[in-house]
Write a structure and sequence with these properties.
3-stranded antiparallel sheet; metal-binding; 5-stranded mixed sheet; Cytochrome p450; alpha+beta; 19 helices
Length: 508
């Protein structure tokens, strides 16, 4: 041991000098990329500001937005876990990023470490013609007929969970219940039923729920891909989820070959797909792209990811905002009462849903006021001229902020005001470019109508069937990331039934 120490001792000054040199070069590289853009003048070596981001994401992004706003340039920079980042607050600059998603400019990544979690071949990362072709194939999933099928399923599941919430609240009384966990389960079951409902056995559903929760936890962890870490567990969970969804795609193909009526999203998708597969087989050609069970499993997981957490966020903020605006609740109840009665024991039809103009305005305002996915990560595939005076360096992670855009342009944007989306004011049209909750450009959310239907149905049924009271505590409505934004206290509420009885709803 002594001889080893004697050998290493002369090398320590050289090692220390090398480490210092690497740290110095890292700082120089950061400052060279930063230039005069607002951001921290110095950053911790290697990790940068990753620790503050993980500890308090809301505060981290709040600081970035403040720097971007106060400087007047509309964006700011930082350094996270070896990655130079650019945060964009200005709406027009965000549109510039969304409009340039291509191989030689910006690549959408959805999550800073998403490729390690989702794999390289997911819908999120597709570009060019391949992406256009897949979007074309997805289009039948969101026709009026398909959406009508989904709204029926959505209502049945919403009712099932509202009954459960009322029961849990009664059992917990006088203590409120944390709605985040219940809303998460509601949306996961909704996604399962709408996307692949008939093809998941009850036993599989429970395992599916567990694996999705493991994945959710991993989203908030640093990308340390070692056995036993939350990130590695999340990767393994994704593999299992994709395998289950791929099996559902195969079962749907068999059903659609028999030309049976579609009952869920994958069925609407497979109607044309099986015809293409049969035509290719008859011609002795290989299977068309985007049609293998594994690929379909990946794409279904993308849908699940997009629908699950964003919708949970919106449901929670809807409850919180409705509680703090009783006049809005009264208007929703009055409108729904004039269109649909729980005592009728009938589902809300697509036509009735379209008549609920005010309730739709409330849903859109919830999404504007608290955009679920606050930032949409991209990676610069090449140097990208953001402004006349600043070029984003290649490899930088770029974060256009849908959240910040929602508070630009609109009249009194800090005020929750559903009337802004009325036919009289039409702020959704006047300030359309600022409404970026569903993204923009070629990767704009293809399922936004489905997502809004889910929120409108929830608000209509929640207000009509239940009385509710938010438990107010210090900081309860501060923003927390889970991974989309939610009230900090998990939305603690007390719930009771307000209708004489719950309706009996079933598929016709």
């Amino acid at each position: 041991m002594n001889s080893l120490l004697a050998f290493l001792s002369p090398l320590l000054p050289f090692a220390a000098s090398l480490v210092f040199l690497l740290l110095f070069l890292e700082q120089i590289s950061y400052l060279k990329k930063k230039r005069s853009v607002p951001g921290p003048p110095l950053v911790l070596p290697f990790v940068g500001n990753a620790i503050p981001l993980v500890r308090n994401p809301a505060r981290f992004w709040e600081i970035q937005a403040s720097l971007a706003k106060s400087s007047g340039v509309g964006f700011s920079v930082n350094y996270i876990a070896g990655n130079f980042i650019v945060f964009i607050r200005d709406t027009e600059l965000s549109h510039k990023i969304f409009a340039n998603v291509r191989s030689d400019a910006m690549n959408l990544v959805g999550h800073p470490f998403g490729k390690k979690l989702f794999g390289e071949d997911n819908l999120i990362y597709m570009l060019g013609q391949k992406h256009k072709d897949l979007r074309r194939r997805i289009a039948p999933n969101f026709t009026p007929k398909a959406l009508s099928t989904y709204t029926a399923l959505q209502q049945i599941i919403i009712l099932k969970h509202l009954k459960l919430w009322e029961q849990k609240s009664s059992e917990s009384s006088p203590k409120p219940i944390p709605l985040r966990y219940f809303a998460r389960d509601l949306n996961l079951e909704t996604s399962q039923m709408v996307f692949v409902g008939p093809y998941l056995a009850e036993k599989v559903r429970e395992k599916f729920r567990v694996d999705y929760n493991i994945f959710n936890v991993g989203l908030m962890k640093l990308p340390i891909d070692l056995p036993g870490t939350g990130f590695r567990n999340a990767k393994l969970a994704v593999d299992r989820l994709v395998e289950v969804l791929a099996d559902c795609a195969e079962k749907s193909k068999r059903k659609m070959k028999k030309e049976e009526e579609p009952t869920c999203l994958i069925d609407f998708w497979m109607q044309d797909t099986v015809k293409e597969l049969e035509a290719a087989a008859a011609a002795g050609e290989p299977e068309p792209v985007h049609t293998s069970n594994f690929e379909l499993g990946l794409y279904l997981f993308d849908f699940l990811f997009a629908a699950q957490d964003a919708s949970t966020s919106s449901l929670l903020w809807a409850v919180s905002l409705l509680d703090s605006h009783p006049e809005v609740v009264d208007k929703v109840r009055e409108e729904v009462k004039s269109i649909w009665s729980p005592e009728s024991d009938t589902l809300i039809s697509s036509e009735q849903l379209s008549e609920m103009k005010y309730t739709q305005a409330v849903a859109r305002e919830v999404v504007r006021y608290r955009a679920p996915a606050t930032v949409v990560p991209h990676v610069a595939a090449a140097e990208f001229p953001l402004t006349d005076s600043y070029t984003i360096p290649k490899g930088a992670i770029v974060f256009p902020s849908a959240y910040e855009s929602s508070f630009q342009g609109f009249v009194e944007p800090e005020r929750f005001d559903p009337e802004r989306f009325s036919e009289e004011r039409q702020e959704d049209r006047i300030f359309k470019r600022n409404f970026l909750a569903f993204g923009a450009g070629s990767h704009q959310c293809v399922g936004q109508r489905y997502a809004l239907n889910q929120l409108v149905l929830f608000i209509a049924m929640f207000c009509t069937l239940l009385d509710f009271k938010r438990h107010i505590s210090d900081g309860c409505d501060e923003i927390a990331f889970n991974p989309t934004i939610c009230p900090k206290d998990d939305c603690m509420v007390s719930i009771s039934r307000r209708c004489p009885r719950f309706p009996n709803l079933s598929l016709q």
